[in-house]
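As the next step, I selected for study one protein, both as residues and as discrete backbone shape codes, as given directly below:
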Amino acid sequence: MGSFEATVTSKGQITVPREIRKKLQLKKGSKVVFHPEGNAAVMKPKAKDAFEELLKLRERVPKFTPQEIEQMIKDSKKAWSRFE
């Protein structure tokens, strides 16, 4: 995707180009966040709900049973005991 130009109005407003709105799935009322980077800024869609984003992240993290966690702790303690 190439570069796109927008004009800043006297009120500091810009129109996000259509191609960018489509790519970022921005609709009327969508919120965006600007992150300054040197003499530029990166615009990203604002996360709708922090808890919802954490739940999405959780889907990508391995899930362990309490027994598996206990075994990992035991294995870790055993491995570290060699350094005592």
